[in-house]
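so my prof wants the structure for this chain in the tokens format not the other one, which i didnt know existed until like an hour ago. anyway here's the sequence
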Amino acid sequence: MIRSWGGKIIVGLLGMLVGGPIGLIVGLLVGHFLDRGVERLRAFNPFRPYAPGEKEALQDALFSAAFSIMGHLAKADGQVSKEELGAAQAVMTRMGLDEEQRRRARDAFRSGKEEGFPLDDTVAAFRDKTRERRHMVMVLLEFLIQMALADGELDPREERILFRVAEGLGIPEAQFRQILNMMLAQARFSWAGAGAGAGAGGGAAADRSRPSLSQAYQVLGVSESASDQEVKKAYRRLMSENHPDKMAARGVPEEMIRVATEKTAEISKAYDMIKESRGFH
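here's what i got, hopefully its the right format
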């Protein structure tokens, strides 16, 4: 309580010394907004120490929301394909889930396939639980987009669900469109390099040829006309956002850090292609 009044007291006293009673009132108002700003920064600091049990609760919320909404996405076109089931199994494998975790994941996935699945309520609950750890939102979106791309194509019904989830998480449409396009490019870059069968769920439409330079630029989210400095800046930002050590510090589950490690490898591969074509180091 004393901490939350610190700004009001200090600025209020300074205002009174300078302007008397009126200065006190002005100072209290300024201090009020100062306190609110400090509290907001403290709340949204991803490196803020976790309260007892908070990290486990966040991980459980992410786990439950991810697999249940993945099930809902898989059923969006009326039936769950072999590729989508394979994608769910692939995610479990990449996350290194033990048998108990796999059972929970399958249960959540099945619940998402059920008629009348409360998508909006599920998204709202996740948003409330992760309100002070907004980085968890990006982790959730990445897993959902992986599921939507399981068969190598983004079905319009799946796309509508993704935008509905993004809206429920408070992400503006234009911003999510940018995120989606970048992740689409990263997925196609991965499929092109690995060939069919190694993508999110087999990548039926994957290009078996070597990834193109154009795809490499899309992975970094920059245009082919970008300057060398812009390319380097985009690369460093993406590597920083997905760095395993930073994700661990933010409380992202260890199982999902393995997936992020694979993503940084694709980003590095794309950057190396661009460097080679431009001749810089």
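also thought this was worth mentioning. The chain has twelve helices and no strands.
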